[in-house]
Amino acid sequence: MFLLLCVVQFAVAAHAQHIAQSAASRALATARAEDSSAAAGAARAETTLRLLAGRVLTAPAVQVDRSGEHAVAHVEGTVMTVVPGLDLKVSGHAAGPVEKWTAE
Hints:
The chain is α+β, with helices and mostly antiparallel strands. The chain contains 2 helices and 3 strands, in the order ααβββ. The chain has helices spanning 2-31, 38-52, and strands spanning 57-66, 70-79, 89-97.
């Protein structure tokens, strides 16, 4: 029975990891747009987490930074516990250049 719970815990952790990465990727896509901001990226990540995370990813934390050249998004949270006493954390990270129009 314990082995089955460990397999389920691993599956839940993998799913939570994908949710965190998806939220970070969507936050980056929004934050790096030419007329966007770090706040808009963070809002996009929060929306993604609200729609996807449910109880699988608890206490998520979102951090989005944008400078003149680069944007970075980081999402982390705690995985829903299936095996008592096993507290797992997952995170997603995405980074890329800020979009800019240049004259040719």
